[in-house]
């Protein structure tokens, strides 16, 4: 359980336990844990939820089910309260980093976030990240900080991710509604069976429940990041972590780490379209590690630009075999599909290179 750089994700229930403004009830023990880690020379990045719960008393609301705009208004005012609440427990300066899915999906912005965090860590700052709720739309929002925390852990090359919630870890079913639920201390492989155990949250101000925590763990372990889901309401949990004892559920990091870029491509970028490949192209891409040439493309679906992520589909059975970044738009691809690479310039009047999807910009699924 050794770690040098960790992302710690703190859920709404810990920041604002009564769902009405912030409290120090659980934050104090978490802040003490972070301080002890920092004193041992470890680097910590905090991902904190709780903006909506913290701002709930300030924005008027009628029904218990809040609209997206009301939640955004709460989040933006609650963010100030939440940051102030954290800062009062630290002597080190805290920084506020608000990000969206678009920021993480754009390679340049991803690198910008990465550089900012690294410089702050080198200067003894505690970065505190949350989703920028004001500017997100329903379609674009990652919508939960569990997944954001996994992506941040990847961006700042953390070796561990701690997801602190109001529950001891992953149980065989939701323990809040099933008395016979049993805690699973170690998960070596995240299977459909594990996902089937994970339910939603009963807290209307939280977003994901256990499902998004498992998704986050899957993203993180695949990137070589050990992930823990532990109970942040129990101060003894932090003594266990400092004593290198697992107090909750541990997901072991994948030994076969895929590169940062492929991880970003697979998990963060949304596919904008699909192209169907003939058997020769499928074989070349899947078995020979080749780039995709226009000659192997049989059809193009949806509208997309050069630089977008698209699905590569086996035309024989419609199975998605890979995801990659296309160097050509749907419009250009419709004109060069099935053609030899040497003919691209003649057909289009320009060319972006011989290949449609380069091997380095592709992940096999
Ligand atoms: N299999 C499961 N194991 C543990 N908790 C589960 C499970 N399925 C659903 N849950 C629920 O997930 C909740 C934690 O998620 P959530 O409320 O979103 O926390 P946070 O606000 O910390 O992100 C638990 O309180 C529990 O009710
Ligand atoms: N950006 C939102 C985070 C919502 C969220 O992910 O909540 P949770 O499931 O408690 O981690 C907020 O600050 O309230």
TrEMBL record:
What GO molecular function terms would the record report?
A: ATP binding; glutamate 5-kinase activity; RNA binding
Under the heading Pfam families, the entry gives: AA_kinase (PF00696), PUA (PF01472)
> What InterPro entries is this protein classified in?
AceGlu_kinase-like_sf, Asp/Glu/Uridylate_kinase, G5K_ProB, Glu/AcGlu_kinase, Glu_5kinase, Glu_5kinase/COase_Synthase, Glutamate_5-kinase_CS, PUA
Residues binding substrate, per UniProt? 49, 133, 145
The record's Gene Ontology biological-process terms are: L-proline biosynthetic process
Question: Can you say where in the cell this protein is located?
Answer: Cytoplasm
Q: What is its main location?
A: cytoplasm
Question: Which residues lie in coiled coils?
Answer: none
Q: Which residues form the PUA domain?
A: 273-357
Annotated keywords: Amino-acid biosynthesis, ATP-binding, Cytoplasm, Kinase, Nucleotide-binding, Proline biosynthesis, Transferase
Show the catalytic activity: L-glutamate + ATP = L-glutamyl 5-phosphate + ADP
- Give the pathway: Amino-acid biosynthesis; L-proline biosynthesis; L-glutamate 5-semialdehyde from L-glutamate: step 1/2
Q: What is the role of this chain?
A: Catalyzes the transfer of a phosphate group to glutamate to form L-glutamate 5-phosphate.
Q: Which family does it belong to?
A: Belongs to the glutamate 5-kinase family.
What name does UniProt use for this protein? Answer: Glutamate 5-kinase
């Amino acid at each position: 359980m050794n770690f040098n750089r960790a992302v710690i994700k703190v859920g709404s229930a810990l920041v604002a336990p009564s769902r009405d403004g912030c409290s120090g009830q659980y934050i104090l023990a978490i802040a003490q844990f972070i301080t002890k880690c920092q004193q041992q020379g470890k680097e910590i990045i905090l991902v904190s939820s709780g903006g909506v719960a913290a701002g709930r008393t300030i924005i008027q609301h009628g029904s218990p089910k809040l609209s997206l705009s009301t939640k955004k208004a709460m989040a933006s005012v609650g963010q100030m309260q939440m940051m102030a609440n954290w800062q009062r427990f630290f002597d080190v300066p805290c920084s506020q980093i608000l990000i969206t899915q678009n920021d993480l999906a754009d390679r340049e912005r991803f690198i910008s976030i990465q550089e900012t965090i690294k410089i702050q860590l080198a200067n003894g700052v505690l970065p505190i990240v949350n989703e920028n709720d004001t500017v997100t739309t329903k379609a674009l929002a990652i919508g939960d900080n569990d997944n954001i925390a996994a992506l941040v852990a990847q961006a700042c090359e953390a070796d561990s991710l701690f997801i602190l919630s109001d529950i001891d870890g992953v149980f065989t079913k939701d323990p809040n509604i099933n008395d016979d639920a049993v805690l699973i201390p170690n998960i070596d492989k995240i299977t459909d069976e594990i996902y089937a155990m994970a339910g939603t949250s009963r807290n209307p101000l939280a977003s994901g429940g256990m499902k998004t925590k498992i998704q986050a763990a899957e993203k993180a372990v695949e990137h070589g990041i050990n992930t823990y889901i532990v109970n942040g309401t129990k101060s003894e949990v932090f003594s266990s972590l400092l004593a290198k004892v697992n107090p909750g559920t541990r997901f072991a990091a994948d030994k076969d780490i895929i590169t940062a870029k492929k991880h970003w491509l697979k998990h963060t970028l949304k596919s904008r379209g699909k192209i169907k490949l003939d058997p020769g192209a499928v074989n070349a891409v899947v078995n020979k590690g080749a780039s995709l040439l226009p000659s192997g493309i049989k059809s193009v679906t949806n509208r997309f630009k050069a630089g977008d992520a698209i699905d590569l589909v086996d035309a024989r059975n419609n199975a998605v075999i890979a995801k990659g970044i296309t160097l050509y738009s749907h419009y250009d691809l419709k004109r060069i599909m099935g053609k030899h690479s040497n003919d691209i310039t003649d057909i289009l009047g320009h060319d972006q290179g011989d290949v449609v999807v380069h091997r380095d910009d592709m992940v096999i699924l």
